[in-house]
Design goal:
Layout: H1 2-10, E1 14-19, E2 26-32, H2 34-42, E3 46-52, E4 62-68, E5 74-82, H3 87-99, E6 110-113, H4 117-126, E7 131-134, H5 136-150, H6 166-181, H7 186-199, H8 204-218, H9 224-227, H10 239-251, H11 259-280
Parallel strand pairs: 3-6, 6-7
Antiparallel strand pairs: 1-2, 2-5, 3-4, 4-5
Helix pairs in contact: 1-11, 3-4, 5-6, 5-8, 6-7
């Protein structure tokens, strides 16, 4: 930890640490490269949040804040190691991110994340004027997994009387699900949802899950008709953050390295990232 803080100070990073309650243990560390802060203040319209794992021997999750430039380049805004992914830890980290903005007018208009209730609640508190969008890809994966679990097809038969294969049912259901996600008008959404209920009529448990767990509470956060009311600049999934994670892990020497070793890898990546972004301008 001391080596990590020394590197941050020597290289002019903005960083914050927080102790775990009344103990001397550091629970959360947040840091950002000075050039990343400049980019964030220039391109703050969309903020993508996602955690990645298996980056250090302490098994601490690494939360990465990601944005994109006017030249469509992805840039890493900031990073945070957290002892826990609880609401209290996430709130502190997002507050540190908020403090990097030079003006209230620069607050993100859209924040994209996965369906983590603690993260969603915190985002709405720290950035109250921002619209929270949920990753449509991850929601689709949840629907697919639930479909495989609940949509048993042993009693279903096709037009020719032959039993329908499980993979065919999942494929059919997911095709209709994508129609719901891609609904461009409210009327289209209603029609596609009606068609979905027809296709899944023999799976009431699955239908109940889709309606009460996904569509009713959060459809405005991932269905195209509602999502496109916001300036999201094409960011409707956390894919941009996950691509950033993949690029970061190429620089990490091991998934069992210590924090200071990991920081050096992150620093090297950021230096090249900033060079590429400036070249794109």
């Amino acid at each position: 930890m001391q080596h990590l803080l020394k590197f941050l100070v020597d290289n002019g990073y903005v960083y914050h640490c927080r102790k775990y309650h009344d103990f001397d243990d550091v629970s959360d560390v947040f840091w950002a490269h000075p050039n990343s802060i400049k980019l964030f203040n220039t391109f703050s319209t969309v903020l993508v949040l996602d955690s990645t794992y298996k980056t250090n021997k302490y098994r601490l999750p690494l939360l990465e804040f990601v944005g994109n430039t006017s030249t469509t380049k992805t840039f890493s805004i900031a990073f945070a190691y957290m002892m826990y992914e609880k609401q209290d830890n996430v709130y502190w980290v997002l507050e540190m991110c908020h403090e990097m903005l030079h003006s209230k007018d620069l607050c993100p208009k859209v924040v994209v994340t996965d369906r983590d209730n603690a993260l969603i609640n915190v985002v709405e508190n720290v950035f109250p004027k921002a619209t929270t969008l949920l990753c449509s890809y991850h929601i689709g994966q949840n629907v697919r997994a639930k479909c495989k679990l609940d949509c048993k097809v042993k009693d279903l038969k096709g037009k020719n009387g032959q039993a329908i294969k499980p993979a065919s049912v999942v494929k059919t259901v997911m095709a209709v699900w994508l129609d719901i996600v891609d609904s461009e008008t409210e009327e289209a959404y209603i029609d596609n949802w009606t068609q979905f209920k027809v296709v899944c009529a023999k799976f009431p448990k699955f239908l109940d899950y889709v309606e009460k767990t996904i569509l009713d509470p959060v459809k405005e956060k991932f269905v195209r008709f509602w999502v496109n009311k916001n300036l999201h600049m094409g960011n409707t999934t956390t894919n941009r953050a996950e691509s950033a994670h993949a690029r970061l892990k190429k620089y990490l020497s091991s998934s069992m390295a210590d924090l200071s070793t990991n920081w050096q890898s992150v620093h090297d990546m950021l230096e090249l990232q900033h060079t590429a972004i400036h070249a794109s301008f």
